[in-house]
Amino acid sequence: MTGEVRIGDQARAAATRTLDTALRAGRLDLAEYERRLVIVQAARLRKDLAPAVADLPDGSGRTGPGLRVATADRERALVQLAGALTDGRLEARAYADAEELVNRAVTYSDIDAVIGNLDAKASHTERDQAIARIEAAVAGGLLEPAERHDRVAAVRRATTDAQLAALVADLPADAGPARSPRVSHAEREAVVAQLHEAVEAGVLELPEFDERVRAVYAARLRDELARLVADLPRPAAPPAPLTALPPITQPPRKRPSFETGMATVKVAAVGWVLMIGIVIALGMAGLTALAFVVGALSAIVFVGILVWAKRTVTAAMEAESARPGEKPFLPAVEPFPGRGPTWVDVDPAEWTSGTPGTRTLGRHNGELLSIAAIVLPDGTPVAITGGADNTALVWDLTDDSLRHTLTGHTHDVVGVAAIVLPDGVPVAVTVSPDRTARVWDLRDGSQRSSPLKVGYEPRGVNCLSLADGTPVVVVHNVSEGIRRWDLRDHKPLGKVAHGSYESFVDGMFPVVLPDGTALVLATDWEGPIKAFDLKTGKTRFELLGHTGSVRSIDTTVLPDGTPVAVSASDDKTIRIWDLRRRTLRHRVTGLLRPQLAVMCTTLPDGTPIAVTCDDNRNKTVRDLRDGAELPYPIALGGDLLSAVTLPNETLILGLSDDYDCSSAAVFSLP
User: Fold this and answer.
1) What is the pLDDT of residues 620-645, one digit of tens each?
2) Torsional sign, CA 126, 128, 132, 134
3) Which of 640, 32, 44 is CA-nearest to residue 367?
4) 382 contacts: CB under 8 Å, gap ≥ 6
5) How far apart are CA 76 and CA 22, in angstroms?
6) Which residue, 442, 528, 532, 439, is CA-closest to 486?
7) H or E element: which one contains 630?
8) N or C: which end of the chain has fewer CB within 10 A?
9) What is the DSSP string of 251-284?
10) Residue 344 forms beta bridges with which residues?
11) 610 pLDDT tier (thresholds 50, 70, 90)
12) Residue 456 confidence class, pLDDT cut points 50, 70, 90
């Protein structure tokens, strides 16, 4: 057999040269070299020589994973590791371990186990390219901004090229949505327009139309959209343009002229002065009877001219304020500073009629600016309204009577909140630009202690009980941030947020998580919803996804103990957030108008609901458990909302539909 062949000095010399080469190349250390050299020198048979050189290159070009690795190979592997660290294919925390494994590697298989899969790792450049594709897809309407956030986060976590490819496989590799199966915003709007045409043609009923519109906005792929209109007639081709006809000309309609009326009055006045001069001259000439006749006729003519001029001027002013056959436009009062007035169509005959189906409370001597409601310990539901007349009014909602008038502020009452203290005393807190917050005992309307100093621009106020039962009032100040006080002794508890977060939307909204952490949610016009720790003032997390300004937020706790926030936005969506998991629970889409306000409460059976208001004052009630719309039409004006839940009904409070928005109205949900 070959292994039994005896060897001579020539074979031992060749093996020694192989060992020398391996020592110089770094494949063997000195100790290993000497050990193997002893084996070579003592070998008598070829099989005795093999263990000393079997895993070393012999100059014949032999390769294999079992061969021992050289120093140069280790250095090349370390260079590859450094390159992978630089371009992001290898994390810094893994680099040290990989470097140690390379330095300890004995064979090429050991080296390959460390660096063999580096080429399959995702690099910074590849991640950036994937993010660029995601951003392009968002810009083209192929992805929702909320999904963009999730995908970008997943891209940054991806470690391999395969994972990156899976995250962008359904997105175009270059500009233009035609290469992607995902649907764009423009395509959704085109399908919605087709659904509208089907309703107008009688092909679709309204309930099915609503269902399909919701499905359109939830669709992600073109195939899903196609299925929603597959059974509908295709849109008719646009008609050919008609030959232009000569314009029909009509004589301009004569309108009453303000300038004409005023000019007539001026001419009449000049004429009247001249006639007085003539009458005086006739009298001095002895023609008394003639002077009397001329004076009487002049007076009659002048009075007639004044009556005609007055009617002309009045008609001109009415013509300027309303087009023929339309109601005059009146500016709607601005319930919150900074929103700017909107113009609403108002019929003067309806100014004091109120909104059908509502109970209207008494008026303030100025516009209504804030509202809150609470059930007193004796079971009496009350509403507290703050107005531009520097007062807050407390109303008994059992008979809508006025219980107390809270006076003391020297400026508008822009915020109202209420809570029952641990000792059973119900209190209301009001804030005003007079730089104070005042605490009132709702039992008798008296003020408790001295006013709290809240700073220059208070905008909103809320009350909550912490996990340990401490009653806290939280006041948002536009220029000075969020401040809080212990309502038992009015001791200040410090600030929460300030500086770059000045422009909060309608104040801030506190909530206590199941672990006892008290948070306050706030947002400005452009940024995300931020959750601040009420104790430390630090930002705990952010809620991202809205593509328009967030106009209103409210918080509540669902029956299963889940704390949620509900946000209304100009992007025509309502979003329900899980504050414990910091995730989006439901996104309500398919709405036709921007959403301005949201308020959370419950029905008597315990169903958690949110009442929302859009920019056309339409109110909608939604189940907070799944975002579904409930069949409760609410007839209230404006976007100022509050609520109180009783054993047999839930009372929704808002602005009455009077012309000056000076009173509150109450709407009952069974």
Assistant:
1) 999 999 888 988 888 888 778 899 98
2) positive
3) 640
4) 373, 374, 375, 376, 394, 395, 396, 397, 403, 442
5) 17
6) 439
7) strand 629-630
8) N
9) PPPP---HHHHHHHHHHHHHHHHHHHHHHHHHHH
10) 330
11) very high
12) confident
What's the rounded mean pLDDT across residues 148-175?
76
DSSP 8-state secondary structure symbol assigned to residue 32: H
pLDDT of 552 above 90: no
Please answer whether residues 364 and 388 qualify as being in contact, where contact means their C-beta atoms are separated by less than 8 angstroms.
yes
Q: What pLDDT, on the 0 to 100 scale, is given for residue 592? A: 87
- Count CA atoms closer than 13 A to 164's CA, side-chain side: 20
pTM of the model: 0.50
Q: What is the DSSP string of 201-254?
A: TTSS-HHHHHHHHHHHHH--BHHHHHHHHTTSPPPPPPPPPPPPPPPPP-PPPP
Q: Which residue type occupies 362?
A: G
Q: Which residue has the tokens 């630009």?
A: 433
User: Apex CA 510: angle with CA 341 and CA 566, to 5°?
Assistant: 60
User: Got the DSSP string for 80-148?
Assistant: HHHHHHHTTSS-HHHHHHHHHHHHH--BHHHHHHHHTTGGGBPPHHHHHHHHHHHHHHHHTTSS-HHHH
Side-chain-side CA neighbours of 20 within 13 Å: the count stands at: 6
The pair of three-digit structure tokens given for residue 572, joined into one six-digit string = 């025509």
Report the C-alpha gap between 166 and 64 in whole angstroms: 35
Model confidence pLDDT, tens digit, residues 573-583: 999 999 888 88
Q: Is 189 left (phi over 0), alpha (psi -120 to 50) or beta?
A: alpha
- Residue identified by tokens 């050189």 is 53
